[in-house]
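Hi everyone, sorry if this is the wrong subforum. Our group has a chain we'd like a structural model of before ordering constructs, and none of us has done structure prediction before. Sequence below.
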Amino acid sequence: MKKLMIALLLVFVLIGCQKNEPTETEEPTRVYDAAELVLLEEMEKSFMFFYEQANTDELSGGYGLINDRYNSNATLSSIASVGFGLAGLPVGITYDWITYDQGYERASKTLDTFLQLEHYHGFFYHFLNKQTGARAGLSEVSIIDTALFIAGAITAGEYFGGEVHTKAMQLYEQIDWTWYLDSNQQFFMGYRPESGFSGHWDFYGEQLLLYVLGAGAPNPQYRTNKTVYQSFIRRTASYGGEPFISSWFGSLFTYQYSHAFIDFRNTEDEFGVNWFENSVHATLANRTYAIDMNPVYQTFTANSWGMTASDGPKGYSGYYGSKPSGFTDDAHRNDGTIAPSGALGSIVFTPDLVKNAALYFETIGGLKGVYGYKDAYNFENNQTWIAQDVIGINKGITMVMIANYFDNIVWEYFMKNTHVQSGLEVIGIRPIQE
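Answer:
Right subforum, don't worry. Here is the predicted structure as tokens:
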């Protein structure tokens, strides 16, 4: 069992034991360095957030719904959190944290819930009451959060097959991606039945997943095309390194979320854009900006970086980020807050730098809780502030990216889906020809 193996390896590191060479009939045992052991622990604790904080009351109407955050606001569920939770089930089974049967049951019954939930053209409300499945407050019908949910469902469907795959495809097939388009062939950002559509995905961000899922939609009438993928602004800028296509707030999650599911490695679109390398450069820029801003924010250092949407001393902020941002590099806002998920979600892009950050996180007293690192920390004004909560989407990007770093787990199963492959082909993202 991997969990036992990891524990034994840690003992070996501590007491200086030498491992015997494997025999001809043995498979070589993977040896993890100190930082990787930290990452494995964080991945497991992040997984346990999704598994333990799910509603398992089959009579409640909200089976499988997972907290938006823990430990406050326990009745609020995020559908994106559910998507990450579904994607994490193959991870939990691979590492023996749950059994196959436990994962299969959780996935199948969660999808049953969504097959019964209220939706608009296949799109779900962003936030739901965890117990009943009803819309929470005036929550919007969210295209990006529906996409993150369905990406997790697709991953689970490809892993488990059978009825899980059938149900995941039912949910995917009912999404009318064309309904969410504006007159410029850009996706709107939100919809409320009381006020209609709002916002536009008119700048680069976390939405690459939308174009792939839309272009590969199982129902031909609901498919989008290459024009939609080409409709958003691609501002090329740089900070301390190579130029790349930047997001509005320069927040690291915008360079990570689509990559949690889509394996963009060694691919490019018809304009020569390699989105994986784009995120590498964005990650490096974020760290360089943190180093350069150390005279302003003492929390920011070479190993304390990763500005991304998170809780902060004054509440949640989606503005945390770095240059380049917006049109003139001033859209981001910082107060010295760092979320561990910012760096950890970039483990596949800059592994050595992220490992150093992970070792640093281990030195921060009070940062760890029952589900691993709490959402964020801030050391400004010679005071220590540490978030009390963990947030589902930040735990999700942490868990999934670490799993992809070690074993390609989520990438492997999501990319097996024929509609995903078709979507990539339609919008023109193909393997780089040597």
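For your construct planning: The CA atoms of residues 248 and 326 lie 4 Å apart. Confidence is low (pLDDT under 50) at residues 4-24.
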